[in-house]
Amino acid sequence: MRLTDLRARFYGCHFPGDAAYYDGRGVTFECPHCAAAGVPPDERQRLGVPFANPIGGGPKVAGGGEQGDCWWIRTGDTIDALTLAPSVDASSERAGRHWHGHVVNGACVP
């Protein structure tokens, strides 16, 4: 399943005291597990993945995680070319028992 099928998009943010808008801080996409289970698109959980190396540089955005802030290493500057490390794991009870897998060249791989 491709990220484009899951309505993936990069997100950005403003930082206090900084007029610049930083795009490419991370990516969000619909949960592949929800999509495979036939959950309607408007009811699917969206997964958010903050980047350790944001597109275009700039500061990182703190991510969630059971052990504090976490970020993923990104390669690729487009949704179709995106590869993330490590895996995206939203399978825990705390995360709602969603998808766990890898994003490789814009595809979600179990």
Primary descriptors:
110 residues; mainly beta; three-stranded antiparallel sheet; 1 helix; 8 strands; 34% strand
Please describe what this structure looks like.
The chain has 110 residues and is mainly β. Helix content is 5%, strand content 34%. The protein has one domain. The chain contains one helix and eight strands; from the N terminus they run E-E-H-E-E-E-E-E-E. A hairpin with a 7-residue loop joins strand 4 and strand 5.
What's the gist of this structure?
With 110 residues, the protein is mainly beta. 5% of the residues lie in helices and 34% in strands. Strand 7 and strand 8 form a beta hairpin.
Which sheet architecture does the biggest sheet show? 3 strands, antiparallel
Instruction: Count the domains.
Output: 1
Cα distance spanning the termini? 10 Å
Helix-strand sequence? EEHEEEEEE
Radius of gyration of CA atoms, rounded to a whole number = 14 Å
Number of helices: 1
Strand content: 25-35%
Main β-sheet, spatial strand arrangement: 1-2-3
Regions with little confidence, pLDDT below 50 for 5+ residues: none
> Please, what is the average pLDDT?
86
